[in-house]
TrEMBL record:
Residue span(s) of domain ABC transmembrane type-1: 71-283
Protein known as: Binding-protein-dependent transport systems inner membrane component
Transmembrane segment boundaries: 12-32, 75-95, 107-126, 138-158, 179-204, 266-283
Superkingdom per UniProt: Bacteria
Taxonomic path: Bacteria, Bacillati, Bacillota, Bacilli, Bacillales
Family annotation (Gene3D superfamilies): MetI-like
Keyword Transmembrane (UniProt): yes
Native source organism of the sequence: Paenibacillus illinoisensis
Amino acid sequence: MERKWSVFSVFNYTFLALVGFSMIYPFIYILAYSLNEGKDSMQGAIYFLPRKFTLENYAEVFDNARIWKAYQITLMRTVLGTFLHVILCTLMAYALSKKTLPGRSFFTFYIFLPTIFSAGFIPFFITLQKLHLINTFWVYVLPLLFNFMHIIIIRTFLQGIPEELEESARIDGYGDFQIFVRIILPLSGPVLATISLFIGVAHWNDWFSGAYYVSNKNLIPVQTLLQEMLTEAEALSNSMQRAAQQGGQTVGGVGGAGATPESMRMALLVITVFPILCIYPFLQRYFVKGVMIGSVKG
């Protein structure tokens, strides 16, 4: 059957194609810039493909011990923080999904209240300081262990699991912990994958904690390092422009072989985004089902 194209359909597909292209193009530009010789990139006019292809920018990045350390911190906080967050939120959600839990309404309101009122940055900083978390690795993990919305999403999913499964398991002699591990967790794949993606991306993209809660350079994550490189690249670019205006003098800090702070920052940005781009397709099939939880009531 031949499909009929209306004016609206043509406009709709064209508009969506332009929106999609506007989302993808920044990644294309960053990738092309990172694969181009740094000094040549300063001339501009790089849009889709590198003009002078080189892997030197990535070699400079991987040759930097500070970047490797920052990448290690980011990986550790993302893996450990995601695992602990999902486990603790699932345990809380499993308890709240039971109507027989004493004080169920009180506990729900207790974890909901902090989402309405926030003390602000300074009281939060003082709290972290009193807990001796400032300038430690755990300042990345512990403050993100619980999230009310994640608990509610998991609880809603668990309430949809037939109670007969748990009743039959209790007849076979299973306790609450065995039921949770052997029945609840295997059936909760979609929602756990969704929550893991949410909190994992939050950990991976967080630069704020490293910038304000950590002064030890060996503990900053890669996103904070990227933000520092951005600031340094902008300062160097301004210095070079002022030097050029004052008589074409050069400014130190640019790699002699052609790499520049800007090109290295682009390479680091690609390396930073790449793991998320690799993981996301594998979680996509669970993600679509997970975000629909609670939207339809039978």
